[in-house]
Amino acid sequence: MSKKETILIVEDQKGFRQIYRDFLENQGYEILTAEDGEIGWNLIREKKPRLVLLDLGLPKLNGFEVLQKVRADASTQDIKVVIFSVIGEQKEIDKAMAMGADDYTIKGFNTPRQVFEKIETFFGRMGTPLTRPVPGF
Question: Residues 45, 20: contact at Cβ < 8 Å?
Fold first, then answer.
């Protein structure tokens, strides 16, 4: 990877932010984090990450509001957005996909390795081995 791809993790739970930040940094990505939707939206507009892992249950702006803003703004509408939530109800998944999410991942059902594999498909590197294997993932 010549230039590091940037991923923004918008997640209010510090533990999830830490696990995924550490894991994805170990795989060579530049990681930005935000603990609420307002900070996340500001980072999206300012930094233009290639991909956003977006929680739905966020303070200030929820994930649906952030997704709506991303898709409505010409400067951000092409950024890949993967919903990253504990909410696994089909109506929420359908809503997110209808609003323009590129994928939906349920926290706790997918390991960091599985999330990494999804990310790799978005960057056209499907099948890329883990740069640094992480025990337990």
Answer: no
Q: How far apart are CA 131 and CA 60, in angstroms?
A: 36
pTM of the model: 0.85
Q: What is the pLDDT of residues 13-66, one digit of tens each?
A: 999 899 989 989 998 899 999 999 999 999 999 999 999 999 999 999 999 999
CATH number corresponding to 6-122: 3.40.50.2300
Gap between the Cα atoms of 120 and 63, Å rounded:
22
**What's the CA gap between 113 and 117, in Å, rounded?**
6
What number of other Cβ atoms are within 10 A of residue 61's Cβ? Answer: 19
Cα–Cα dist 42/21, whole Å: 19
pLDDT at 106 over 50: yes
